[in-house]
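Practice problem: predict the structure.
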Amino acid sequence: MIRTHYIKELLSHIGETVTIAGWVDNIKELPNLRFVIVRDRTGVAQITVHKKNSPPELVSQTEKLNLQDVLAVHGIVPEKQIAKIGPELTPVSIEVLSRSEVPLPIDVFGQTELDKRLDWRVLDLRNPRNLAIFKIEAKLMEGMEAWLRSNRFTQVFTPCILGGTSEGGSEVFKLDYFGNPAFLRQDPQLHRQLSIAGGLDRIYDVGPNWRAELSHTPYHLCEHRGMAVEFGFISDETDTERAEEGMMAHALGMVADECKEELEMLGAHVEKPSLPFPEVRFPDLYDILREHGMTIPFGEDLNREAEQVLAKHMKEKTHHDFFFVNRFPSRVKPFYVMYVDEDLKWARSVDMVYRGLELSSGGQREHRYHRLMEQVKMKGVNPVEIAWFTDNFKYGVPPHGGFCVGIERTVKQMLGLDNIREVTMFSRTPERLKP
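Answer:
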């Protein structure tokens, strides 16, 4: 390895000779001094060059540096640290590993509009705020997986290319699969269920999903990541709520405890939410919305505005950022969702809302073959085309359910950012396919 230490480690090695490596963030000139600010993923260090006392070749070399040049700096960590922005290093030698052209196409640390930043996303990612976002996202995922593993869930990998659509509708990306039609998955839903039918009992799948919708909102992507969880032998859909809230509370708690510096940099406040998350159900929420001056026709789904009104109400009543919406109208849900036997107008379907935005859909699935086929017919799904899925339910499938949490949406809401593209390393939207 070129480096011996990351910058954040230097103050633990006072008086020692080390090698750091990173990018030139800034160059500051004083009459007798030149400060080269070098950044790696852990922070910044000040490389102090004395113009009169340093070796002439070192002084000459640093005169030719550009912003975003990649350096390896071999030097001594001085006992007297006078730098204000990070550890100081007295250089013995500097190796330029890669030159950067000038001028830069964007100001990495300036106020550049989002589309331009995304055009030059690689440079934009060097901004420490963006590094902080993705460190937080990684910790969130670590927390989710830690909770799932501790509760005996097994990670699986379900296919991203499907021979048919799982959700129905036209919002799918169609592929040519050796001369046959295929589709990118909208959700790993059906194969998660087949994993439970296969006896795996408790599984999770982390991966991409695609929706070919012409949405230009700050919370939609054509490609997004989901934490998809499914488990068997449940009593009803409230078991999925308990699992989901447990996973989310653990993950946010890890972010709050282990990402303090990153959260402070972003001005974000995150804390471990209390349990249980409150719940509101159809049809009761129609009355709640009416109290706030909004009327949704009975039996209709929530729209975005209603979701926000409901979130404000739940925050005022429960002081909670999270809540579940349960028992959606069955007419707006896919064929695989279990309906309430006592009243078939409603489904055992659950959304989780966080700070006014839906993060997940889930609930209990229909495991009874005769009911499943009734709903296939009711929803106008071709029974022959879906037989690869439904035929398995003839042979004993336990009551089961689950959910899929949108990762980018969660991070956006958690950090209070305006646009989901900010938390997507390389976003895919109707107008963006590169880089």
